[in-house]
Amino acid sequence: MTPPLSPPSLLPLLLVAFNICFSLAASNSVYESFVQCLKTRSNSSDNISDIVYSHSNATYETVLEQYIRNARFNTSSTPKPVIIITPLTESHVSAAVICSNNIGFQLRIRSGGHDFEGVSYVSDQPFFILDMFNLRSISINMADQSVWVQSGATLGELYYRIWEKSKVYGFPAGVCPTVGVGGHISGAGYGNMVRKYGLSVDYVVDAKIVDVNGNILDRKAMGEDLFWAIRGGGGASFGVILAFNIKLVDVPETVTVFKLERTLEQNATDVVHKWQSVAPTTDDNLFMRMLVQPVTLNKQKTIKISIMALYLGDVNSVVPLLAEDFPELGLVTEDCFEMSWIESALWWASFGKGTSPTVLLDRESYHVKFMKRKSDYVKTPISKDGLQWLWKKMIELEEPGLVFNPYGGKMNEIKETETPFPHRAGNLFKIQYSINWKDMGIEADKRSRSLVNRLHSYMTSFVSKNPRSAYLNYRDLDIGITKNWSYQEGKVYGESYFNGNFERLVDVKTVVDPHNFFRNEQSIPPRTIKAWNEKNEGSIPPSTSKAWNKSKPYVMIILFMAIVHII
Question: CA-CA distance, 123 to 135, in Å (whole number)?
């Protein structure tokens, strides 16, 4: 059979069209059709045109760029959305899903913009962005220690609002205050209380989601399978997360933090080697993150390690604890600082002593840079010989660094099938690979990514295997992407992120979004597309061609006008 016209065959011309004459991309026919659809579908009396931005709108670039958190995806060649929707109500979200689907454009969903690969706001096909930043209400019920938090809220806002209500409750989530709640929690979410309490998703008791048909569903309405899937499987594969209902956890009135640094000349190798056995097994109240960086000190290249710690208790407890468990570290009372839990959130976010917690409400306190991240899991300690070999390689590479995050504690108590996130018992620590750079351009990008990829390759023998596991919220497109939205393509990255839970995620996807409207480069595929590809030798599945045929008239108009402009 003859396959439908394939979008990838037009990709080079489309990119030229968008880059040269992008104002045409948000043509009146697309914008007006979408706005008219939104007006008829929305329950709100608001002026719909005020929440929909085309490229011709004077504030389009401001809205687009304000939540781009990786400079790699804010260049002149980065594909831009045809339309940006900034909903004010849940009905706006529902209408946006229906109308985007009807018109035939992809919908990318952004809550905080911290996706390391820009998947929430970049696509190589014509697309809209549903930007959730206006939906950020936080409603706290101290009677049962629960919170309804909308997906556009940031972690900093969540922490601040909890602190306003109580000084003895907190929430186990990330240390970067500008991260959006929607993406963080739906991707599992973890922070410096992971050993005491586990993941963010372990405290989600309800949720609200907009499905592909525009229905607004809570836990009861969506069913337990979908509720399971969005707690770590990535919400953007299944719908639009509106809000999570979470349970708070106890935190003491006084916590302790410390940061210690060592170089190779200061027994760093011994400290790292011992850290691998102590950090995942010590008191569950203690979390010790370790940064490993190549540096030059006194004109000599070496390795510097930095151990940053949170202890849910006072200094008089943690110092003797580590004197017994970790004497190689040499922790003394003078290294430690006692403070409240909210002050520790500021300390971890690198705010200075005395900074007001109100800074957590600042959405602009994030410095955007060029970056690339990757991840791994370690199940057996790396030997001293292995570490010394690794130091040599890192010194040769000069720039990429590593961040070791210990597991154990509560993480060992929760079954790997409890949520889509499978990396529980048996994992000593997670590794984040990190490189940042300042120079713009393709060459700087290639060079920096090559360096971190080489470091990732050097680590192969030390990390998990079959599959080589990775963390969804440290998204890495190098693991694999889907071009035809097939099951086989999805399995490559899906098993790395979810191990055996990938199959159940595919089953859920097949039921709730069989035509694969909610998709991106690493989304969960439905099995229906696998069957289509096997039967039709890889031609575009009917669900995709359906959407393509809807958008084809708009895209062909855009392409034609751009070619005329070039001529």
Answer: 23
3-state secondary structure of 126: coil
Determine, yes or no, domain membership for 264. Answer: yes
> If DSSP codes are grouped into helix, strand and coil, which group holds residue 383?
coil
- Type of residue at 496: S
Among residues 206, 288, 196, the alpha carbon closest in space to that of 250 is found at: 196
Name every residue whose Cβ is closer than 8 Å to that of residue 143 and which is 6 or more positions away in sequence.
Answer: none
Tell whether 326 and 238 lie within a shared domain.
Answer: no
Q: What is the CATH number of the domain that holds 217?
A: 3.30.465.10
Nearest to 468 by CA among 520, 524, 416, 423: 423
Q: How far apart are CA 410 and CA 412, in angstroms?
A: 5
Give the Cβ contact number of residue 148 at 10 Å. Answer: 17
DSSP label at residue 233? S
**Domain residue limits at 196:** 138-250
Are 532 and 519 spatial neighbours (Cβ–Cβ below 8 Å)? Answer: no
Q: Distance between CA atoms of 194 and 322, rounded to whole angstroms?
A: 19
Q: Any idea of the CA torsion for 343, 347, 349, 354, to the nearest 10 degrees?
A: 70
Domain check: are 217 and 322 in the same one?
no
Q: Which position has the token pair 């098993």?
A: 495
Looking at 131, 160, 180, the residue that finishes a domain is 131
Number of other CB atoms surrounding residue 503 within 10 Å: 14
154 and 245 belong to one structural domain = yes
Residues 268 and 396 both lie in one domain? yes
Residues 6+ apart with CB under 8 A from 254: 313, 314, 338, 339, 340
Predicted confidence pLDDT, tens digits, the chain (567 residues): 433 333 444 554 444 444 444 445 445 689 999 999 999 888 766 788 899 999 999 999 999 999 999 999 999 999 999 999 999 999 999 999 999 999 999 999 999 999 999 999 999 999 999 999 999 999 999 999 999 999 999 999 999 999 999 999 999 999 999 999 999 999 999 999 999 999 999 999 999 999 999 999 999 999 999 999 999 999 999 999 999 999 999 999 999 999 999 999 999 999 999 999 999 999 999 999 999 999 999 999 999 999 999 999 999 999 999 999 999 999 999 999 999 999 999 999 999 999 999 999 999 866 889 999 999 999 999 999 999 999 999 999 999 999 999 999 999 999 999 999 999 999 999 999 999 999 999 999 999 999 999 999 999 999 999 999 999 999 999 999 999 889 999 999 999 999 999 999 999 999 999 999 999 999 999 996 544 455 345 444 444 444 445 555 554 544 454 444 444
Reference 119, options 489, 544, 522; nearest CA is: 522
CA–CA separation, 95 vs 37, rounded Å? 8
Predicted model pTM = 0.89
